[in-house]
Design a protein that fits this description.
It is built from 7 helices and 10 strands. It has 224 residues and is α/β, with parallel strands linked by helices. It has a single domain, classed as Rossmann fold (3-Layer(aba) Sandwich), CATH 3.40.50.300.
Length: 224
C-alpha cells in the first residue's frame, strides 16, 4: 500500500537547515498495524505528515497504492487525503458546538452527500465505535475517551484505505487509552483496516503488530 524510497526531509536553508528524515526506506502492506516510535525530533511525526500528504519530502519517492504522490497536483493530493486517508489526532479536533452526529458526518458534507444518507452513515459509524445513543451529545457532554471515539468514527465514515493515528491516547488516562487501543485493534483485525500510529508509549505500541523505531531521522529498528 505504501512505499517510501530514500526519503529525505530538510527544513530551513544553509546553516539553519535541519534534516528531519535521512534516506528513509519503508514499505507498509495493506492490513498492517504499524506503530512508529522515537524520541522528540526523531522524525516519526514528519514521516506521518508526509504519509498523510500534509507535508512533502525534500527528496525521495512516496508511492501510495503504486501512485507517485509527488506527481499529483495539490487538488489531487487533497482528494487522496479526503477519499483514502483517515486521521485521528491527540487533541480530537472536534467542533465544540456541534453534536457527535454532526461532527462525524462533516467529511460527507464536503463530499456533498445527501442529508439523509449522511445521517444514516454517521449513525452507523458511531455505533461501530460503541457510541450508539450518544448521537446528539456535544463534545462537552462526552468523556475524553468518548470524544476520541467520535473522532475515530469521523475518520472511518469515508471508508479510508488507511487510518493515520497521531498519539491517539495522548490526552487520555490509562484506562481510556487502552479502550481506544482495543477499538483500533478490532478495526484492524475485523475490517482489515490498515493502521499507522505514532506513539511514544511502549505499552501503547505493543498493540501494533509491527513497531518502527526512529532516531535522528533514520529508522533504527523495524520489528514485527
Amino acid at each position: 500500500m505504501i512505499e517510501l524510497h530514500q526519503l529525505n526531509k530538510i527544513y530551513g536553508k544553509g546553516t539553519a537547515s535541519v534534516q528531519a528524515l535521512h534516506n528513509v526506506d519503508l514499505t507498509i502492506n495493506e492490513g498492517e498495524f504499524v506503530a512508529m516510535m522515537g524520541p522528540s525530533g526523531s522524525g516519526k511525526s514528519t514521516c506521518m505528515n508526509i504519509l498523510g500528504c500534509l507535508d512533502s519530502p525534500s527528496q525521495g519517492e512516496y508511492l501510495f497504492q503504486g501512485t507517485a504522490v509527488a506527481d499529483l497536483s495539490r487538488n489531487q493530493r487533497a482528494l487522496l487525503r479526503r477519499h483514502f486517508i483517515g486521521f485521528v489526532f491527540q487533541g480530537f479536533n472536534l467542533l465544540a458546538r456541534t453534536t457527535a452526529l454532526e461532527n462525524v458526518e462533516l467529511p460527507l458534507v464536503y463530499r456533498k452527500t445527501a442529508k439523509r444518507e449522511r445521517h444514516e452513515q454517521a449513525r452507523a459509524a458511531l455505533a461501530a465505535v460503541g457510541l450508539e445513543g450518544r448521537e446528539h451529545h456535544t463534545p462537552a457532554e462526552l468523556s475524553g475517551g468518548q470524544q476520541q471515539r467520535v473522532a475515530i468514527a469521523r475518520a472511518l465514515i469515508t471508508n479510508p484505505a488507511v487510518l493515520l493515528a497521531d498519539e491517539p491516547t495522548g490526552n487520555l488516562d490509562s484506562a481510556r487509552g487502552h479502550e481506544i487501543m482495543e477499538l483500533l485493534t478490532s478495526l484492524n483485525r475485523e475490517r482489515g483496516l490498515t493502521v499507522i500510529m505514532v506513539t511514544h508509549e511502549a505499552d501503547i505500541a505493543n498493540y501494533a503488530r509491527r513497531v518502527v523505531h526512529f532516531l535522528d531521522g533514520t529508522i533504527q529498528q523495524d520489528l514485527s
